[in-house]
Amino acid sequence: MSAFKRKRGGQAPGNKKAKKAKFVADTSEAPKENEQEKTHEITVPAPVSQGKWKNKERVLIFSSRGINYRTRHMMQDLRTMMPHSKADTKMDRKDKLFVVNEVCEIKNCNKCIFFEAKKKQDLYMWVANSPHGPSAKFLVQNIHTLAELKMTGNCLKGSRPLLSFDPKFDSEPHFAVLKELFTQTFSTPRYHPKSQPFVDHVFTFTINDDRIWFRNYQIMEEDAALVEIGPRFVLNLIKVFQGSFGGPTLFENPNFTSPNMHRRQIRLAAAARVREKQMVKELQKLKRAGTKEDVTIDVTADVFLTPADETPVLIQTEAPEPKVVKKNKHKAFKRQRMARK
Amino acid sequence: MIIDSSTMESEDEESLLGQESEDENSELSDSELQEAFAKGWLKPGMNVLVDKTKKHVNNVEGLKQCLAGFRKDLPWAERLDMTNLPAEDVIYKAEGKKPAVKIGDVNPDDDFQREMFFYRQAQATVLDALPLLSKHGIPTKRPDDYFAEMAKSDQQMQKIRKKLISKHLILEKSEKAKKLREQRKFGKKVQVEVIQKRHKEKRDMMTSVKKFQKGMTDKLDFLDGDQKKPREPSQAQNKVAKDNKKGPNAKRKYKDQRFGFGGKKKGKKWNTKESHNDVSGFRAKVANAKGAKKGAKGGKQNKRPGKSVRKKTKSRS
């Protein structure tokens, strides 16, 4: 795409950017280009807008270093979904956050979505209105990208979305601020040069379990049959600031525990459980050891002792007399005796 | 740091002067405590450190001001936003159940319910927005010949389609396999029944033939198949004849059923002198054959070469 100067006044010369286009279409031409399709190869015509682009909303979508593949893909998906977005290189971690404001100014953007990854695990998202406006920091969870095979829907690249909000957004002032911020950030301006004039998908923001759930559906039929396109993620609000990437805090979410604290709590709980088990084991050991007594004296030893009369002790000093053997060993056998007789 | 004092019973009052003991919090030095006591911050009683309850900022005024400051009053056609509750749950209505959630929270852990909630919210938006869009002249339907770049490439859509088709196929296969198994079971049952029936028929036929051979029945009814003969004309005769035969016949019948036509069947195989001396089952050819069928496959398949051959080959290799 060649860079060219946008004329102030909002002419929409976007038709010159058609890929492989062999002609220049006028703004007044209808989006249907049947004749060209039939004669030449199928060209992808540039998105045609039929009016003046007035709502100059530009969103800068970029990240810090250290994001993982899922975050990167989600960022790219957001850029695909939002034709009024701009990309930028990764920001170095050394720079402070207010540098982002300067980057926005350089790129001539008035909104910013900034992804920050900490510890290669936790993803934080800043949504900010760049020069003076409010900004919000979220913790992002449950990311699913466009490329997942379960997301079967598809939409035009750069078509304008419908935005759907939960009525809970009107109940609290901080949610009202968030709603306004999301509306301005995510809605594609009408007659944006890169936008398609059709409305064929809807972004859903729902508040549930103190978190904001984001979904993207394709409108299949006029009777509101929907298919999910993706991406999808869950935002957990941390703080709302009055300024862009800084400034006084307007709102702090009382139910938010940082992911570190969350992990710490889990570990502590596990440790406490282990300690409990050990204590119980030790107690049991003590119990078993304590009840053992050394049985040296048998209490029941003299139950069966019956006292007997004392007999005088006779000590034999002389050897006893030998016994008189009555048997005649020298007798002959009976047969011999018979024989003798 | 906040020092919270609580009242104690009268017994303990004498032991407390407002100075904490050593084994408690060592952050406060004695001098500091003395100062605090002098200033009157510490009161008699047990002084315990308590964490200050964290105040979470909720600057409602600030938020409202901020909102007023940065909101852009754009026409609806620019923003295209809607706020609505989920649409009616058609399935629930059809089943007659009450919808699970009116305004309260959907259970976030119940995936299906939660996603259906989001889906219905989007549906409600679409239903409300379509007339508005047509009013503003914003088209929603893409004409058939409008070719434009899609968010997902054609390749990606192909992959998705393939995956869906493969899932469908797997499901079908498993269904077919289940059905086949069921059929086989049923078929087997039916087959067994048919075979038994046939065997029974054969048995009956054989018994009736033998009966006829033995002269017990002189009718050849069994040859005609399963036709039932009308017995009215000769019923009286038969009755008389049957009456004579019924008595001993039942016993005879039973005995014939058990031992009939061929002698006793149960005590056939006994190892007696007669059975031992009976050499009628001896076939000299079979007994003296010495495995004549071994060479059918080919000589060397199972044969192991002799010792000398093995020695020779071993020394060579």
Structure description:
The complex is a heterodimer of chains A (341) and B (317). With 341 residues, chain A is an alpha+beta fold. Chain A has a domain at 53-262: 3-Layer(aba) Sandwich (Rossmann fold). Helices cover 24% and strands 25% of the residues of chain A. Chain A has helices at 34-39, 69-81, 99-107, 173-186, 259-290, 334-340; strands at 59-63, 85-87, 111-118, 122-129, 135-144, 159-165, 196-208, 211-219, 226-228, 232-243, 246-252. In chain A, strands 1, 2, 3, 4, 5, 6, 7, 8, 9, 10 and 11 form an eleven-stranded mixed sheet that branches. In chain A, strand 4 and strand 5 (135-144) form a beta hairpin. In chain A, 35% of the residues are buried. Chain B has 317 residues and is mostly helical. Chain B has helices spanning 10-13, 30-39, 60-70, 76-79, 90-95, 111-136, 154-214, 235-259, 273-277, 284-287, 307-316, and strands spanning 2-6, 46-50, 81-83. Chain B has a two-stranded antiparallel ribbon. The longest helix of chain B has 61 residues, at 154-214. Chains A and B meet through strand 6, helix 4, strand 7, strand 8 and strand 10 of A and helix 3, helix 4, strand 3, helix 6 and helix 7 of B. Chain A: It is found in: Nucleus, Nucleolus. Chain A: InterPro entries: Brix, BRX1. Chain A: Residues 57-246 form the Brix domain.
